[in-house]
Design a protein that fits this description.
Chain B: It holds the Pfam family Hexapep. The complex is a heterodimer of chains A (201) and B (207). With 201 residues, chain A is of the alpha/beta class. Chain A has helices spanning 5-23, 29-38, 40-54, 60-81, 189-195, and strands at 83-84, 90-91, 95-97, 103-104, 109-110, 114-116, 121-123, 134-135, 139-141, 146-148, 152-153, 157-159, 164-165, 174-176, 181-184. Chain A has a six-stranded mixed beta sheet with strand order 3-6-9-12-14-15. Chain B is built from five helices and 15 strands. In chain B, the strands form three sheets. A six-stranded mixed beta sheet of chain B has the order 3-6-9-12-14-15. In chain B, strands 1-4-7-10-13 form a five-stranded parallel beta sheet. A four-stranded parallel beta sheet of chain B has the order 2-5-8-11, with no helix packed on it. Chain B is globular, with a radius of gyration of 17 Å. The chains are: A alpha/beta (201), B alpha/beta (207). The interface between A and B is medium-sized, with 24 and 23 residues.
């Protein structure tokens, strides 16, 4: 699987568009073009996308140089903002990190459009062979949510703030609580908001 | 002045008095976050020529504190005097208004949630323990303790202790609700137990 520089730029553009669309409501030119780049979450996402791209570079010396730049950027993100995303984490387009601090994401796979808030941990549990959770499309992880164990999160899933998820979550569910309980089985607002249908704020 | 009250309350919570308490307060990272918030509120009413350099200084300090200490307190709502952060890290506060003697611990988020029309309103003498999330159109009364890792999505009445995800009220007659112990004379050993136990005793009722 190769990944060209153009694809890397397209992925970064999808992330920025998602962030603008969801988290910056008053679209002044300053917010759109300057403020979005000052967000720690945006910087972390760009550094992660860059690191993921450097994994695919084949030219020997160029690759080591790019990795060095990536490691410098990553140390700023990890030490300064407390956001840890390894470059082996695989996902489609659209990763939006709102706020920062205490975010840990393991090298797992995720679909398109993942929304991550502060204090979100995705991780494996002891005794399950170190397999982290798999995440589907259009997933919304609220502040302080913990997704642990060898589980699968479906598409269009909303995890409420401070929830602890240790079991599989089927498509279209909203889960809340410690441990998480399903409170709604027809969650469509993420897809509707992405399509621009209806007013959900 | 608000900042003086913040320093006094911080010394009271740390149980340190005099120069020792003053130094340990002024040299802590969390105090600077509070100081920058107070400074940002102060310069909001300045006339235009003075406001521009003051605001540039404010935003520089705000971003530094955000990235170094992980504390982000936005200027939207007023926070009353006696605002204390007990250790920093992952603190996000944007509220409609917050009363006096507000104490927060690491990992606290006060903010909006999808579909909410306004931000939370918090009363006097409220303590949010580590990891608490207060989200959406919530009114929290006076003298309230929210226990660690709770999720507050509904109103909380006065004088209560709440816990859980989402919260349940465990006590409504708590007249104390985190009144920190008063500073003791230097020859007594420091009190090491839970902070609110001492407040049940006669010692604290005098205060």
């Amino acid at each position: 699987m190769r990944m060209t520089f153009k694809e890397f730029l397209a992925l970064v553009k999808s992330d920025i568009d998602l962030k603008k669309h969801w988290f910056l409501k008053n679209d002044t030119p300053f917010n759109k073009n300057v403020r979005v780049w000052l967000e720690p979450g945006t910087i972390a996402v760009v550094v992660y996308r860059f690191g993921h791209w450097t994994n695919h570079v084949k030219v020997p010396i160029l690759k080591q140089l790019l990795r060095l730049i990536y490691i410098l950027g990553k140390s700023v993100v990890v030490l300064g903002f407390g956001i840890y995303i390894p470059s082996r984490f695989k996902m489609g387009k659209g990763l939006a990190i709102h706020n920062f601090s205490g975010i840990f994401i393991p090298p797992t796979t995720a679909g398109d459009n993942l929304f991550v808030f502060q204090n979100v941990t995705i991780g494996h549990l002891r005794g399950q062979g170190g397999r982290p959770p798999k995440i589907g499309n259009n997933v919304f992880l609220g502040a302080g949510a913990k997704i642990l164990g060898d589980i699968t999160i479906g598409n269009n899933v909303v995890v409420g703030a401070n929830s602890l998820v240790m079991n599989d979550v089927p498509d279209g569910c909203t889960v809340v609580g410690v441990p998480a309980r399903v409170v709604s089985k027809e969650t469509t607002w993420i897809q509707e908001k992405l399509d621009g249908v209806g007013d959900h704020w | 002045m608000n900042l003086t009250a913040d320093i006094k309350q911080s010394m009271r919570i740390q149980e340190k008095s005099g120069a020792c308490g003053l130094i340990s307060t002024l040299f802590s990272s969390v105090f600077w976050a509070v100081a920058v918030y107070r400074y940002g509120r102060m310069i909001q009413r300045l006339p235009a020529p003075l406001a521009i350099p003051a605001k540039i200084a404010y935003w520089t300090m705000f971003y530094l504190i955000q990235s170094l200490f992980g504390i982000s307190i936005q200027l939207w709502g007023k926070i009353g005097e006696g605002f204390v952060i007990v250790r920093g890290g992952c603190i996000f506060i944007v509220a409609e208004s917050i009363g006096r003697q507000f104490t927060v611990f690491p990992g606290v988020t006060v903010g909006n949630v999808r579909g909410s029309k306004r931000l939370p309103i918090i009363g006097d003498n409220v303590t949010l323990e580590p990891g608490v999330k207060v989200l959406g159109e919530v009114n929290i009364g006076n003298n309230v303790i929210v226990r660690a890792n709770s999720l507050v999505l509904s109103d909380v009445p006065d004088n209560s202790v709440v816990i859980g995800n989402p919260v349940k009220i465990t006590s409504t007659s708590s007249s104390v609700a985190y009144k920190p112990p008063i500073p003791k004379p230097a020859h007594l050993a420091p009190y090491c137990g839970p902070l609110n136990d001492l407040s049940e005793t006669d010692l604290c009722k005098e205060n």
